[in-house]
Amino acid sequence: MGRLDGRVALITGAASGIGEACALRFAQEGAAIAGVDVVEPSGQGWKAVASAARDAATFKADVRDEAEVREAVSAAHRHFGRFDVLV
Predict the structure, then answer these.
(1) Burial of residue 42 (number of CB atoms within 10 Å: 0-12, 13-18, 19+)
(2) Which of 23, 38, 43, 54 is the most exposed place for a label (fewest CB within 10 A)?
């Protein structure tokens, strides 16, 4: 049982680096992961996130573009129904 069981985390920059590391750790703690990034994740890191999470989905958006962010967050909300954590 993880500290984030049943929670949904929306994580920006989830395709690599710190965002990917956060997504993996949150997934290991039981969170479902809504990953947002300007690029599609393509490496082993996201595969580890998807494997560890009860649900994981990615949504493409450049966080500098408000319209893209709105669309990505709306799509993630439709998929998950809510957010409990924002990174």
Answers:
(1) exposed
(2) 43
Residues 6 or more apart from 75 whose CB is under 8 A from it?
Answer: 59
Strand-pair partners of 8: 32
Whether this model's pTM surpasses 0.70: yes
Of all helices (H) and strands (E), which one includes residue 33? strand 32-37
Query: pLDDT 10s per residue in the chain (87 long)?
Result: 799 999 999 999 999 999 999 999 999 999 999 999 999 888 898 999 999 999 999 999 999 999 999 999 999 999 999 999 999
Instruction: Please give the Cα distance from 82 to 20 (Å, whole number).
Output: 21
Q: What are the start-end ranges of the H helices in the chain? A: 17-28, 44-52, 66-80
Strands 85-86 and 32-37: unpaired
Specify whether the CB–CB gap between 30 and 54 falls below 8 A.
yes
